[in-house]
Structures are given as C-alpha cells and as structure tokens.
Amino acid sequence: MPDTLLISTEALQGLLDALIAKGYQPVGPRLERGAIVYETLSAASDLPRGYLDEQGGGHYRLSKADPSSPETAGIFRYAVGPQSWKGFLFPSRQSLWRARRTETGFAFEPETDDAPAYAFLGARPCELAAMRIQDRVFQEGPYVDRGYAERRARAFVVAVNCTRAGGTCFCASMGTGPRAEDGFDLCLTELLDADDHAFLVEIGSASGRALMELVRHRTATPEEIERGRRAITDAAEQMGRRMPPDAAAILASNPEHPRWDQVAQRCLSCANCTLVCPTCFCSRVEDTTSLDGVEAARHRQWDSCFTLDFSYIHGGPVRRETAARYRHWITHKLSTWHAQFGTSGCTGCGRCITWCPVGIDITEEVAAIQATERAEPLGDE
Amino acid sequence: MASRRPKLAVWKFSSCDGCQLSLLACEDELLAIADAVEIAYFLEASRAEVAGPYDISLVEGSITTPQEAERIRRVRAQSRMLITIGACATTGGIQALKNLRPLDDLVRAVYAHPEYIDSLATSTPVLDHVRVDFELHGCPINKYQLLEVLSATLNGRRPNVPTYSQCIECKLSGTVCVMVSQGKACLGPVTQAGCGNLCPTCDRGCFGCFGPVETANTQALSARLKALGMDQRELQHYYRLFTNNAPAFREASETHD
Ligand code: SF4
Ligand code: SF4
Ligand code: SF4
Ligand code: SF4
Q1: Which residues lie with the beta carbon below 6 Å from any ligand 3 atom?
Q2: Domain that holds residue A187
Q3: Total domains present in chain A
Q4: Quick check: is A70 in a domain?
Q5: In Å, how far from its chain's centre is CA A64?
Q6: Per the domain annotation, does A381 fall within a domain?
Q7: Mean pLDDT, residues A227-235 taken together
Q8: Where would I find the 4Fe-4S ferredoxin-type domain in this sequence (chain A) (predicted)?
Q9: Is residue A380 scored above 70 in pLDDT?
Q10: What residue spans in chain B does CATH classification 3.40.50.700 cover?
Q11: With a 6 A CB cut-off, is A346 part of the ligand 2 pocket?
C-alpha cells in the first residue's frame, strides 16, 4: 500500500465503520449550541458540514457557508473550537480512590479506569503537538500518570491537516502546523473545489495501514497530493498572528515590566485561558467524606494558576495580584516550560485568545513587552 | 460513653425559605442527615423544638428589623458553629435594594399604614452583626454544597467549597461560553462558582446568584459588557440582583450611577 491514498467523502463512513469494527469509540467534531465540540460520533453524517468559523479575541461564531459555494460541502473547514482532546486523555473531573472505614482502619479501593479505546477523528496539527507536550508532562518524566498513559496508548489518531486558518491561529510561527508531520495513525487532507470533494489519507503507523485495508481507497495522484499541499500552504498564509521567536527570553528578562499591571487591569482572572489550553495540566485534589464518616473519596479536577487557592501556602496565597497570576501563566507557557519539559507549552492554537471573555491576546502581550523592553529601567520613565 | 448526635438548628430571618428548603430537597440524603445529627429546631420540617445550645446552626435570611438584630445575637450565643446559608444571610439578599433609598420613602410608597412598619434602614448580612464560622453562598444554595459543608463539619475537615469563578464550572462541564459564542452578557467571570453551571447550560448568562468571586474585576467585565451593547442603566441593574449588597457588586453598580 502506498503512503498516500485517496478516499471519497462517502468513504468517511467506511472509515468510521472500520474504527468501530476494530473496537474503537470514535470521537470527533460535532455541532453543539453554536460551536464545534468533540463528542462521540456514530455516523459520518454526525460531522458538521458546510460550517465556517469566525474567531477573534473573545469572539467565536459559526456560520453556514453560502449554498452556492463549494464550501457548503466542506467538513473540516473550521479551526479548533473551545474543547480539546485533553478532555478525553486528562478528564476534567476524576475519582482517584474510595475508602471505607473498617474495624482496624481503612480499606482502600483504587478507581478502575473504564474509558474506552478512543479514536480521535479530526485532531489538528496543533492538537497533535499538544498531545506530545502533555505526553512529556504526564508520562515521560519520572512519575507516570498511569490513567493518562493507558488512555493515550489505547487511542487511535485520525489527524486532519488545516486548509483554512482560524482567526486566532498562529501555529505556523510555533512550528506545529498547519501540516501534521507525525504523531498520527492516519492523516486526512480535505480536497475541496467546485467539482471535486475527496480526502488524501497519509499513513502514519502500522495500525493506520491495517485500518485502511478495511476502507475503500485508491492511490493518490501526484496532482492530488500537490493540491493538498497548496491548500495547507494557503492556511499558513492566512494566519494573522505570530509569536515572536524569542518569546522565552523576552519574558524571562522582564519580570518587572509595567505591562503586567496593564494587562491585570483587563484580566478577569477567570481561568478560561488555562482551561481551554490543550497543554495546561494543573489539577487540584479534593477529599470528601460521607456524613457518617464511614466512607471517604479522593477526586482530582482541573485547576488553574488564576485561582487564589493555586498558590496558597501557609499564611496565604503567594500570587495575590492578578498581575502576578497573568505573568505566571504566560511565563510558564512560553518560557519556564522549556526548562521544565524541553519544549514550549504553547502550540499556537489560539484558544486562549478566542475564549478569553475579554479577548486578551497572548501574542500581543509578548509583542508589547518586546516593543518596550529596551526602554529605560523602571522608575526612570 | 455513648456519643451524642450533634444538635442541628435551622433559623430563618428575612428570606424566602428557599435555602432551608434545599435541606428538605436533599431527599435521598435526608435520612443520612437525620442519622448523623439530631434535628433540634427546624420549623419548616417539624414543630418539635429541642432547647439549645446547638452544635450547628444554619442561618437563613438577612437582618432587616431591630428584632432580628436582637435575635441573631441570641442564636449566636446558643450555637457552637454558626453557618450562614444563602444570598440573604451572606450579602443581605435582593431586599438589600432598600439600602439604596431612604427608608421612609419606601415604606410610604409600599404600605397603606406605614405606622405599622418597624424596620431597620438597611438589610445586612449576618456577618455584619455576629461572628460567622462559615458562609455558604447562593440564591438558593446548592444542596450538594450544603451536604458537603455538613459532612465536613461533622467530620472535622474543611469543606470543599470553591471560591473561584463560574467560568471554571463552565469549562469543567464542557459548556460552551455564551458570552464568547453568542455575545450574551454574563456575570460568570466575576461570580463565585457553586450552582453547577445552571444558566450557561440553559444558554443564558450568569446572574451572579453566588456573589462575587474571590478577586472580582468588575471594571474589566463592565467594559466588555458595554462593548457587547449594554448601557449604563442596564449595567447598573445587572449588578443589582440577588447579591447586590456584596461589596464588589455594590461598588460596581455605583460606578454606573
Ligand atoms: S487572560 Fe482572559 S481568560 Fe485568562 S484569566 Fe485573564 S480574562 Fe480570563
Ligand atoms: S497558550 Fe493559548 S495558543 Fe498556546 S496552546 Fe495554550 S491555548 Fe493554544
Ligand atoms: S499556565 Fe498555569 S495552569 Fe497552565 S500548566 Fe502552567 S501553572 Fe498550570
Ligand atoms: S458562559 Fe459565562 S460563566 Fe461560562 S465561561 Fe462564559 S463568561 Fe464564564
């Protein structure tokens, strides 16, 4: 089997059937209350068709494409929405263990993970990058998060290259997209014009190859492969934002910059940016008891460095001011993450910009600090 | 020595009874509560009254009359733990709107016989009058949070009642943000979590029932709400809902006078 195949749009159903036959539970984009979210797919007809997104700082709208344009048949012409695959690999709420009081102490029962083997259909290049970053956090360090590692190992990834950039995307400047280089079992590129609609399929793994045995396909022609390449280049050229390449150094050398207080005036410390970010990994752990004190349980749920509790140590929270919290988040993402995990914590997906209720823009904040960092030292202004 | 069940009392001040009813709404858990505590005083549930002192007092309602100001002191004196429940008891409630105008004007406008009315000029939270051991917010409170507070109190641990934003609840449950995706006004970013995400899951913005979040930046939110089309008056009314007298919301509403 060659490495690049072509399938028809009808064959997407065959792809889903093959995944289900292999025991996977397909999850992918679905339309819910005006946004693209990730949910269980039972048929290819569940995939939203003909939707285009409009994204900006604190702004997201989906619209139906003009029925006379080829876009009306498009399936993956929107960029990432508010959710990411993080919700499946690192669930927002999880029970860790339960315990019962016994005559001699406590009997512990660890929770069993009953998550299915997921097939992620429609993972974008920036999302593959986010999974690789969370792999480093959860399973490549000295302490492995067993649940994450198991869910990750079981998952099958059908990536989709981006052929249209979202309004807040800047993956090209982070080197994570809009084309997926690796990290998938299969990777689709949507070919869409007035008289043709089909998908290129790149094979990324042995299980990807085995799956394609079950799906009707033919070899892609060099012209088709070239059309796909051009569509992805178009997406790269559409991106209106970029991250300055030396963001890590800019932030590391400006902990006292006046911009921190300025951004704190606008920041709600609502934590949306951290929770929509596909790489943020922080959690809090809570213990509960039954009223009679016989049963106890421990839960883990997503947390954010924007809460006061997050930096609470004896005596009070360390990062009381919003300026300190915003600085912590952006510096962790773009600078200290390198020292901690050998990579940036940002993939350029743009979610933190779109889903910030007041539209604070991570690229703009770095650029603002960069533009003024050579100003006179503080106090001499 | 047989251990005595802790005595629980439920008190009502100026309020609608909705928060006390949250205790009765704990249908499945009610028997467990009755096993864990002796319900010594709870007029909404039973006419039986066991004399104090009480181990745990749940206090609903705000202080709006001289008699209430007196009675809350007696309740405090008889209670080992005093827990206030609901927006009225923790902020003064919707009735704290009266704090904005001279009492006489209001009494004359509302009552045919103003001379019968003996009211304080303000509706204030219980904390303004006596020491409070724990405040549980909400209009009404969330019954699961109430159970958590009771269970934590009975087991000698700190309750898990978050002080972070409503937005975190949206994101934990995967609710699409109504402000970003539909341009609807939402107080969620300045409101404490706790309701279990009720309004955003019904496609509406948050009304601030759980009061201000730990560090509420109402100025930044107001600027955004204006950009989404709210005028001064609408903004003022938006902050003047069930928790209008909570300092952060009161100050925010005053800046839009
Ligand atoms: S940057 Fe935006 S999303 Fe993040 S905490 Fe501040 S206001 Fe919320
Ligand atoms: S920091 Fe923002 S742009 Fe970067 S990965 Fe996170 S959400 Fe995406
Ligand atoms: S930015 Fe904040 S929430 Fe995200 S990983 Fe870093 S500390 Fe955690
Ligand atoms: S709907 Fe409201 S509470 Fe939910 S994330 Fe959006 S602004 Fe926050």
Answers
A1: A 274, 280-282, 304-305, 329, 332-333
A2: 4-94+101-238
A3: 2
A4: yes
A5: 24
A6: no
A7: 96
A8: 256-288, 337-365
A9: no
A10: 7-154
A11: yes
Say whether residue A156 is in contact with chain B using an 8 A CB cutoff: no
Q: Which is the closest atom of ligand 4 to the Cα of B170?
A: 4
Could you tell me the two tokens for B37? 């505590």
Q: Domain B7-154 carries which CATH code?
A: 3.40.50.700
Dihedral (Cα; A269, A271, A274, A277), 10-degree rounding? -120
Per the CB < 8 A criterion, the answer to whether A299 and A312 are in contact is no
| Å between A27 CA and nearest CA of chain B | 15
CB of A177 within 6 A of ligand 2: the answer is no
ipTM summary value: 0.95
Residue A374 pLDDT level (bands cut at 50, 70, 90): low
Q: How far is the alpha carbon of B99 from chain A, nearest alpha carbon, in Å? A: 28
pLDDT at A309: 92
Residue A379 within any structural domain of the chain: no
pTM of the predicted model, to two decimals? 0.95
Residues A221 and A268 in one domain: no
Distance from CA of A168 to the nearest CA of B (A): 13
pLDDT, tens digit (0-9, with 9 covering 90-100), for A137-194: 999 999 999 999 999 999 999 999 999 999 999 999 999 999 999 999 999 999 999 8
Does B56 reach chain A within 8 Å, measured CB to CB? Answer: no
**Residue that finishes a domain, picked among A238, A258, A273:** A238
**End residue of a domain, out of A238, A261, A294:** A238
Q: Please check whether residue B179 touches A, CB under 8 A.
A: yes
Same domain, A145 and A217: yes
Same domain, A217 and A322: no
pLDDT in tens, B36-64: 999 999 988 888 889 989 999 999 999 99
Helix (H, G, I), strand (E, B) or coil at B81: strand
Judge if A223 and A153 occupy the same domain.
yes
Q: Please answer whether residues B63 and B213 qualify as being in contact, where contact means their C-beta atoms are separated by less than 8 angstroms.
A: no
- List CB contacts of A136: < 8 A, sequence separation 6 or more: A341, A342, A343
Asked if residue A378 is part of any domain, the answer here is no
Q: Is B231 exposed, middle or buried (0-12, 13-18, 19+ CB in 10 A)?
A: exposed
**pLDDT at position B160:** 96
